[in-house]
């Protein structure tokens, strides 16, 4: 980061700020992560680089839900899901689904589990985690995290949410409406 700041390479500054925020979130240093991700988002937005914008939005969303700021997290996730879906950035969209699942878990949103509701119910945290854990387009780090999270949750009926881009885009729209 210091090198990129020295030479003024703003794209990599924004990207590295997002990576540092990701690491700090994992270490539960959410306030510092939030500051770094906000700085990274500002630069990425000025440069209009969707992938780096998403990286920083996800870091902001994670910092927010870890601190119990659920409305802020939902706002960042709505923006991220819409952007990832618009640009067809499927790995990023799946990362967004992972974070929506984590938000749902942190908020302790009850999951419907009756057989009658399963066919029409909205996606649950388990559904989203299962999709991310199994989807070949998901980044390995988030596939691994999703698998770990699923192992810690009570088993529930999981709905197959589909893997095709159209299904992912539709799911993103549904989640944005719920966030």
Radius of gyration: 16 Å
Q: Helix coverage percent of residues?
A: over 70%
Q: Pick out the low-confidence regions.
A: 113-121
DSSP, total strands: 0
- The pLDDT mean sits at 89
Question: What attributes characterize this protein structure?
Answer:
179 residues; 0% strand; globular; mainly alpha
Structure in words:
By secondary structure, the protein is mainly α. It contains 10 helices and no strands. The protein has helices at 2-7, 10-26, 30-47, 50-66, 70-87, 90-107, 115-118, 125-134, 140-152, 165-178.
In short:
This protein has 179 residues and is an all-alpha fold.
How would you summarize the topology of this molecule?
Elements: H1 2-7, H2 10-26, H3 30-47, H4 50-66, H5 70-87, H6 90-107, H7 115-118, H8 125-134, H9 140-152, H10 165-178
Helix pairs in contact: 2-3, 2-4, 3-4, 4-5, 4-6, 5-6, 5-10, 6-8, 6-10, 8-9
